[in-house]
Amino acid sequence: ADMNVFLVCWGNGSAGLDFNQAVANTRVVAAQLRLLILNMNQLGARMEDIHMIGHSLGAHTSGVVGHRLQTESNLTIGRISGLDPAEPAYEFHHEMIRLDQGDAAYVDVIHTNGAPFIPNGGAGLFQPCGHVDFYVNGGKSQPDCPSLFSGITSFFSFKNGTQHW
C-alpha cells in the first residue's frame, strides 16, 4: 500500500524547563498540523486513512488536531494512537485540549508511566482517554525504570510507550 509518513520535530517548542510553555505550544503545533491535513484532504487524501501517532505532549497535540478538524471543518481523522499522553497539566482539563476518544474515529492509547506525579514521579496520564486503553504492566511504572524523584531522570519508563508500539 502507498503511504506517506510525516514526522513533526518540535523539540524547540517542547524542550526546556518551562513545561507550561510547552503545553501552550501544543496548540500552535496543532493549528499547523490541522492546516496540513486540510491541504492533504483537498488534494485527495482520505480522512479515514490518516493515522496520527503522538507521544506525551504529542498525544494531546494529535487530540487537539482531531477536535479542531471536527468542530471547524466537519472532518474526522481515521485513527489516533496516544503513547503515554502527558499527565501534568492535562489530568483534569477539558476534552477540547487533550486527547479523548472523540478526537478520531478510533483512538487507542498505551499507558506505561501513569503513577501519580506526586509522590511517584509518573509523567503519563493514567485515566482512560481512548476507545481502547492498554496498561502495560499495570500502566503505572515499568520494571527497572527509576522514579523521577530518585535522583535519576526516569523518562526511560515514560519513553517505553514508544517501544511497545
Automatic annotation (TrEMBL):
Cellular localisation: Secreted
Alphabetized InterPro entries for the sequence: AB_hydrolase_fold, Lipase, TAG_lipase
GO molecular function, one term: lipase activity
Domain annotation Lipase: ranges: 2-148
UniProt GO BP: lipid catabolic process
Swiss-Prot/TrEMBL keywords: Secreted
Gene Ontology CC entries for this record: extracellular space
Similarity-based family: Belongs to the AB hydrolase superfamily. Lipase family.
Record-given protein name: Lipase domain-containing protein
Source organism: Dreissena polymorpha (Zebra mussel)
